[in-house]
Here is the input.
Amino acid sequence: MRHVLVSGASGFIGLPVIAQLACMDTEVHALSTRADPPELPGVRWHRLDLRDPAAIDELMSELAPERLVHLAWCTEHGRFWHGPENVVWVERSLQLLRAFVRCGGRRLVMLGTCAEYDWSAIDGPLVEASSPLVPATLYGVAKDALRRVAGAYAEQQGVELAWGRLFFLYGPREAPGRLVPSVIRSLLAGESIATGRGAQVRDFMHVEDAARAVVALLNSSVVGAVNIASGVGVAVEEVVDEIVRLIGHPELVRRGALPDRPGDPPLLLADIARLRDEIGYRPRWALAGGLAATVRWWEARERRVIPAAAL
Here is the structure.
């Protein structure tokens, strides 16, 4: 049985990743700073702060995992693009990698971002091996820097490193301030919501599909960068339209009330040939079905929250 260590395991993508791993012949060790992470069959939780090098070394020596999935990073909505914490997370990630290698680790997956690519002149799907990497935010720069340093170090140490480059995820447990949950929650509550024009085309992927892709990448022999995305471009306004179709209340959506963000590219779409052909993974959720499942999750959550708040 393989031992897998997962950082950031209680996060948006972390929980579905460890749930997938727990269904396999794998001993899953999950890291979180939470005092009460959810109980999952086949998952052993470890409360650990990655700011503590001694604690990292001690746990890594105790577990000696063969594989590592590193998901932890600063993800606070509205802050992560430019927050100085990004620099700190490069340091913490390299520290975790070094401890993993010292204790005999053989293969790992780290998560990158489509923000590593040059967004200034996109004319088609972004390809891992050929699209320019010129990140415009500290988040993108930090992720790209980690990929370069970690990749060179892993190769030198004879360790396999795969870099999962995420695009735009949605699904249950997403931060409430982001596009999909903010529109869903507003319409469910009967409140108006301001949106932009929504002409930008984005590559949306359900978080469960992304988690399965991460696990498939871990269980493959592929190294280097791999886009983790649907490969399907959808205008943001179409996402809003589908949520309105599912919930109703089109009159609550104030379209065009928000200005376009400076430098926001008209197209961000992934080429998923590596994911499809080398790893053998294809997304399962179409956007309509994924949004319907996400609406149902938020409906159930809001029903639980609202009565409690009224007491």
